[in-house]
Design goal:
With 235 residues, the protein is α+β, with helices and mostly antiparallel strands. Helix content is 16%, strand content 37%. The strands form 3 sheets. The chain has a 6-stranded mixed beta barrel with strand order 7-12-9-11-10-13. The longest helix has 22 residues, at 3-24.
């Protein structure tokens, strides 16, 4: 038999079989529709971003000059997510209360006299020890420890002598004189002249410590009409 004729008969038989299967099985060659139901389509998913303003707490500190304010802890507003019903769903940022110190001590500004002295001054201690104890109860010698003191709050500051009835030990003073950069001093010493000036005339007189009397004479900071600004009263 002719090969070509056999191939032709085979194709016709295949076509007849496919047609027969399609007729008795309607799913073949048809599209199937799949329906998916979204259960969340009717739910309210609205989210509200709500800001909670921070609180403010005032602490009254007699070590600070009167009406001086110092921010101890900055305030931070809180942020929360709320649903449509007003229920809190998540805290995004926690609220932090602002803490402010308010000074209730004496006034801060004074005009007075500034002089200089060294540990070898007449009547001074041979060891150079200042009149006040340090904050931790220790001693400070101008000879062995120098004319500077390391304060935990203000850092390295100059040592001052003053009338301690007015300026208690540990008082921090900002000293201003025209032509000289402002600097900090700490009251750690006293002197008869300063005590008398305040007691009898209400005059502020402070003495700035140097390494020696000779150094004090050439310091160039001494003078009258010096502006003293108290930053902290005592320890």
């Amino acid at each position: 038999m002719n090969v070509y004729l056999l191939q032709l008969i085979g194709k016709w038989l295949s076509l007849i079989v496919i047609t027969f299967i399609s007729f008795f099985n309607p799913r073949v060659g048809t599209k199937t529709e799949v329906k998916v139901d979204n259960e969340n389509k009717n739910k309210n998913l609205t989210v509200i971003n709500k800001v909670i303003e921070h609180d403010t707490k005032m602490i009254y500190n007699p070590s600070l000059p009167n009406q001086t304010k110092n921010v101890v802890t900055p305030g931070v507003d809180g942020i929360v997510y709320m649903d449509a019903n007003g229920n809190e769903t998540k805290i995004i940022q926690k609220m932090v209360t602002e803490v402010i110190e308010v000074g209730t001590g004496g006034v801060s500004d004074y005009i007075g006299k500034l002089s200089g002295y060294g540990p070898d001054c007449p009547g001074c201690s041979k060891t150079g020890n200042v009149a006040c104890h340090t904050k931790n109860g220790g001693k400070h010698s101008l000879i062995y420890d120098g004319e500077y003191y390391q304060d935990e709050q203000y850092g390295k500051v100059r040592i001052l002598a003053a009338a301690r009835s007015k300026f208690p030990c540990g008082t921090i003073v900002e000293i201003n004189k025209p032509g000289i950069a402002p600097f900090y001093g700490i009251v750690l010493d006293s002197g008869g002249s300063m005590v008398t000036a305040w007691k009898e005339r209400n005059m502020v007189w402070m003495d700035l410590a140097y390494s020696s009397q000779a150094a004090a004479k050439v310091g160039g900071i001494a003078g009258n009409n010096i502006h003293f600004k108290v930053k902290r009263w005592g320890w």
